[in-house]
Amino acid sequence: MFELLGHGLLTVLQWNYLVPLFAGTLIGVIGGALPGVTITMTIIVILPFTYGLDPLQGLAAMTGVYVGGSAGGLVIACLLGIPGTPSAIATTFDGFPMARGGAPGRAIWLGAWSSFFGGLLGGLFLILVTGPLAAIALEFGPWEYFSLFVLAMAMVAGLAESSFIKGLLSTAIGLLITVIGTDPIGSVPRFTFGSEFISGGFPFLPVLIGIFAFAQIMSDIEKLGVPKTPEAVLAAQPSLKVSHVKVIGEILGRPFLLLWSTIVGILIGVLPAIGGSAANMLAYDQAKKFSRHPERFGTGIPEGIIASESSNNANVGGSLVTIMAFGIPGDAVTAVMLGAMTIHGIQSGPLFVSQQPALAYGIYAAYILAHLLMVLILAVGALFMLQITRVRLAVLAPVVLVLCVIGAYALNNTMQSVYVLLIFGVFGYALVKGGFPLAPLILGLILGDQIEINLIRAIMTDDNPLLFFTRPISGGLLLCAALSVALAVWQHMRHQARTAPDEAPDF
Amino acid sequence: MRLGRDSFAGLIFLAVSLALLVQSFGLPQLPLVPVGPGFYPRIVLIFMAVTSATLIVQDLLARRAEPADVPAPAQPQRAYGLVALAFVIVALYLVLLPLLGYRIATVLFVAALQAILEKPTTWRQWAVLAAIAIGTSAVTYLVFERYLSVLLPRGSWTNW
């Protein structure tokens, strides 16, 4: 295994892989630092570039974006007190007070090195666990797959922040989109109303780009009329000089905190379609609960930064496990990566690691190297990133939309995909305005075909529907799904009793 | 009683799911496969209909529980007009793309969207706007067509 990893590292260290990886990491850091630009958006922007690259180059660039993005948000979170990405929300709680208290360098580098260690621990987990998990997944029959997908959807719908029932409805919409077009077994056209345009169904990537990119950009444009809250600006040129040995000592001197936050991050990452925005909040919450002085959280203590930043990078490793072992994306970012793999004709799933070892270990290597590059980029450019946040939406929005259009068009060189992009752009924006969470929809969209194929396959193999419940793994997964729904309903009722729902859309 | 946002959305999705559910029974049966192509869509559509209906009921109950004359919480001002305009500009871009070709249409699109999002006032700002529009088009074109060999739309009017 380590021989393969060494080989992967040597491969990625070659210029033709190192350059895309570096570019990806840099763009990820920048995208993560830009408030209002999420990692999902950054990876969507980078997608069309990967069409022209070879698979590993493309995946290395995307891995770089993913790792860099998780770290990029922290600089802005510490210096300006606004999270650059949702995955840096909890970093602002202690990072900003610490920076304002006169130690901006310590805040940023606590975050950067925590990201580094959390990410590497996540990488270790990724390398050790993906193979064995894939081996388990190979034993799965159609019943188990079907039940696994149902569990994934139940969990994601349950985690929707606004409303559980909207989460479920959102899932249903995603599933329905995949039903339109020809059926996967007998190629019978379904719900096409005789239209040539939708006879082939809706291509996955344009739908995803449309829904995410437009929902995000249009929500940003909406706020253009809002007078801005006065920006919390630090001294013009804050000094970020700090003793790295001391900062690393501070982090490694709290091994339990680091490990626990990392584990939280990994677990959230492994669960489908949740992502970094949940990981950092949960890890911060956990750190506070386990702390001997919870009242000091939020005043600028290192624990808060360590918890948030180590978890959000570990989360990336966890998400990569799910995509590589099961072929289920851990979040919207890995969904785009999955789409990019499909374009290059690579089937993700339990056979991926054994059939494409060069690619799999190349991704591992890229993941590890991206962390080194990320630290390097922050060391050189942390102050420069304050300038980046001044890029105005008026410039950013058209450029991002152009890249989205290229991403859709270049899929198969037809305008049809571009029209799909706009249709779902409008639809996605409407859904966000209606308070519908997008993550369950995307998961439904990704899993739809597979759910149907496995369901029909199971029925064709044996027409006893009870097998879904009586086969131990399948039954166990369905039980977990039922429990997850019950838990979500219970939590929702308790939550509703206490507070009004928060309507901030989550990308 | 006035319908809430959720009831409205729920009604739309309920209507869509019921209409498609009726349609699904018209799908042909396949030999060899015990369940036809309509089997799985029906499960999805029934699921959708049930969740939509629940959403409507939930919304109606929540509205009944609340006194009707509670003033809505002050919403921050939103630039919805700008959003609508932005969507129109994107739509125009997509119409013009296959006619004018990528290079020209992109310059127009980037310039137009920038101008409505932040109207330039001085000639200098107009120059920056134009430079960004032309730059975006030129750089993406060169990178994608020349370096990555990703083809971009040609214009049927301009042949360029």
From TrEMBL, chain A:
This is DUF112 domain-containing protein. The chain crosses the membrane at residues 21-47, 59-82, 107-137, 143-160, 167-185, 197-215, 256-275, 320-346, 358-385, 391-411, 418-446, 466-490. Keywords: Membrane, Transmembrane, Transmembrane helix. The keyword Disulfide bond does not apply. It comes from the Bacteria. The lineage of its organism: Bacteria, Pseudomonadati, Pseudomonadota, Alphaproteobacteria, Hyphomicrobiales. Residues 20-443 form the DUF112 domain.
From TrEMBL, chain B:
Signal peptide: none annotated. Coiled coil: none annotated. The keyword Transmembrane applies. The keyword Transmembrane helix applies. Keywords: Membrane, Transmembrane, Transmembrane helix. The chain crosses the membrane at residues 40-61, 82-105, 125-144. Residues 9-153 form the DUF1468 domain. InterPro entries: DUF1468. This is DUF1468 domain-containing protein. It comes from Bradyrhizobium icense. The lineage of its organism: Bacteria, Pseudomonadati, Pseudomonadota, Alphaproteobacteria, Hyphomicrobiales.
